[in-house]
Amino acid sequence: MTMKPIGDLLMEMKKRYDKESQGWRVLSGAADHGLYDTFVLHRDRLWQMKTEPVNPFEVIGVGTTHRRVDEGIHNKIMQEGKPFLFQIAAPQQKGIVIAQGLQRYSDDSTSRLRTVMSDKQEALDRELEACVQSMSLKRFPERHAMYG
Asked: CB of 69 within 8 A of CB of 1?
């Protein structure tokens, strides 16, 4: 699976959303080391974004696309949790993509979703986490110097 910046994933989702705006599900939850997982499901496609909050208005992160997922299982899990408003803004070369709406938030559900996805999911999670931490270290070296 290929890791991409979240802006690229949002553009991919936007193209699909423009063709079919119904049947989308979003689920977020805390992951390890202060990061967050956000999953977006539409039919047989599941996008996963691993992000680190930079400030209340910005996150840095990467993600990947899972194809041929079991929509029934994933859809059930993604309807669990508490309703929560979300907004993601991703700068692009020719403007900005803004995704906003109602999602679900549940640390337990995101954890369970990761376990039913794939045998390779644990390794992918480590890759995504390492990439986000590397991005954070490059952009905010002073944060990492504070904690050793």
From this structure: no
